[in-house]
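Dear Dr. H.,

I hope your travels went smoothly. While you were away I took the liberty of generating a structure for the chain from your last submission, since the lab meeting agenda had it listed for discussion. I wanted you to have the full record in hand beforehand rather than looking at slides cold. The sequence, exactly as received, is reproduced here:
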Amino acid sequence: MNRKEEWSICKYKGDRIGEIMGLESGHTYYWPTTADNPVYCGVIDEEEFTNYWFPTETEDWEILLDPTGMAYRTLYEKKGYVSRKNLDYVMKQARELLDNRSDSYDDSGMIR
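The corresponding predicted structure, in token form, is as follows:
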């Protein structure tokens, strides 16, 4: 099910996103997927710890390896595409939702 040889590898060319667990211009990232369901599921950094959802603007990415064609379909055919505008909106809604729930934060103020 989780076979690394099916993942796409893309180089990020856009502006830096985030300080921690963000994207750095010039770095390469895995785009995990499966041959059975080759859709965009986020980005994994070189530590291969977890994937994060980032925008998939065509001008920000260069495909280096794409065994299932998922990265091409995401970037150029807009299948599973995530725009900066939509991601910003989703993140804003998530922050507002968490701000309105007292159980969203632990005693130190960190998000649970």
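Two observations you may find useful: The chain has two helices and five strands. Residues 4-81 form one domain.

With kind regards,
E. W.
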